[in-house]
Amino acid sequence: MTAYVPLDGRPFRLTMGLRPLDISQWFERDDEWDIQLSLKRNLVATKRREVVAVTPTCDAAAHELVDRVAPFGSTTVVDDHPLVCASTMVPDDLCIMEFDGANWRLTGAVVCFPSRWSLLEKIGTTLDEIHGPVPGYATELRQPTTTFFHRLRADRPMWRLNWTLLDNPELFQPHPERRAVTGDPASWWFRVERQTLVRLPTTDAIVFTIRTYVTSLPTLVMNRPDVKDMLLTALETAPDDSKSYKGWHGVAEALRPWLTSEDRLPH
Ligand code: HEM
Asked: Which residue has its alpha carbon closest to ligand 1 atom 27?
């Protein structure tokens, strides 16, 4: 059961939602740590082309990063690029963003648990291009996010949360599909990303980390009965383009009767 339920009962809205990060909590050890880490090591070994993307400019930042991650992580099992070494110490996906004089660009990443996007399509592109498919990003988030990147200080790291509902619990979902979530809500999953943004003081790169938590909807609703109304509010008030992007068309309509029926306890 995830500790993070980023719902507040208010209508859906796009926000940066950044909060200060206590750097001693950069990576969080929990019951899923070892499971996710072995899944990740397996993906790096068997699907490297899909989950590892490094451009030469990220090497210095990757060296700086591995030294910073090491005190938090499990022992690495690979003799590899420093970004891969860092990534195989923690379950979080790791992305390196560097400023090229005009734009912040994704110059290196190991992403094993993407939520319906492809690393190969994003590597080398800018913050704006990465978020091209996100409805409302260009008008509402582009400017504050870019300003935030310019101003982020090494001694003031930040974090944020992101969530969605999916009908597939797999952590590795590298296909940018916009298919609506379907089927019985009893087999749906609440997927949360805990993201951190940390500036590396020597190379000035920004590290973006993503830790993914997947909880079955019946478990979530049983442990947190208060989420029922908050979920429906968010799903029903999302604009049409956000519903298409998130795969939420028809989701509130299926969820409402299920939430009031008797057979929604976890099996
Ligand atoms: C303050 C910083 C950031 C903010 C506020 C932000 C915001 C968002 C939002 C609102 C979404 C839509 C997700 C959803 O609603 O389910 C999104 C998607 C995404 N973000 Fe960010 N983001 C930030 C930084 C980054 C960085 C540094 C990366 C670098 C890898 C990144 C990669 C992505 C990707 C790959 C997606 C999915 C895009 C797609 O569907 O093709 N984000 N972001």
From this structure: 208
Q: Where are the domains of the chain?
A: 19-161+193-216
pTM: 0.96
* CATH fit for domain 19-161+193-216, picks 2.60.470, 3.30.70, 3.40.1400, 3.30.450: 3.30.450
Ligand 1: residue whose CA is nearest its atom 31: 130
Question: In whole angstroms, what is the distance from residue 42 CA to residue 99 CA?
Answer: 32
pLDDT-based confidence at residue 196 (cuts at 50, 70, 90): very high
Residues with CB under 6 A from ligand 1: 14, 16, 95, 97, 106, 117, 122, 130-131, 133-134, 141, 145, 148, 162, 164, 176, 208, 246
Q: How many CA atoms lie within 13 A of 82 on its CB side?
A: 17
Going by C-alpha positions, the residue among 196, 208, 205, 210 that lies closest to residue 58 is 205
Q: What per-residue confidence (pLDDT) applies to 265?
A: 59
